[in-house]
Amino acid sequence: GAVVSQHPSRVICKSGTSVKIECRSLDFQATTMFWYRQFPKQSLMLMATSNEGSKATYEQGVEKDKFLINHASLTLSTLTVTSAHPEDSSFYICSASNDRNTEAFFGQGTRLTVV
Amino acid sequence: SQQGEEDPQALSIQEGENATMNCSYKTSINNLQWYRQNSGRGLVHLILIRSNEREKHSGRLRVTLDTSKKSSSLLITASRAADTASYFCATADYGGSQGNLIFGKGTKLSVKP
Known about the structure:
The complex is a heterodimer of chains A (115) and B (113). Chain A is mainly β and 115 residues long. In chain A, the strands form 2 sheets. In chain A, strands 2, 4, 5, 6, 9, 10 and 11 form a 7-stranded mixed β-sheet that branches. A 4-stranded antiparallel β-sheet of chain A has the order 1-3-8-7, with no helix packed on it. The N and C termini of chain A lie far apart (37 Å). Chain B is mainly β. In chain B, the strands form 2 sheets. In chain B, strands 2, 4, 5, 9, 10 and 11 form a 6-stranded mixed β-sheet that branches. Chain B is globular and about 40 Å long. The chains are: A mainly beta (115), B mainly beta (113).
């Protein structure tokens, strides 16, 4: 099956700094990538949808200036958490799809801890 | 808002027993998918069932879909300790991209050796 690689798997950063998370589709062209956030013991919540070459569409309640998403190529999307705060500590997962897929391919996830 | 609602929220069984998890949803769907997540790890896609399908098998997994009741079930037969994980259902609607999934809250399965 298709492979989506997410990096880093774990990151610890200080409050006020910015953190970038990468999501790459390794063997297919991902026209659409999705970013999810998961709080402990809870389900995934869709944060935003990004289409290659256009601005991301954010879900209600997600601050677009805080969670910057860039989908500059068909194989790479990045999520940058700006001015990180301890409340941003969470598990972030990306997924990718193309027009021919009928399933979403997920990255391994990134555990972000803001101290 | 969450569309899929799994039950039970937690399930504890002995190795060798069958585990059944249910999922209900609210709107019309294109397909329903089941995922597995080991603690602190990413999601693993298990099985996808389309809205015009009623049952699907994959190894020890059996998924059913009842669109009239807007519900699905995941059955894991002859469970193993390695099946211990959280299981999520996710729905994709007709209007959205296939990747735009709405996840339920999940069932935490614990299989005791």
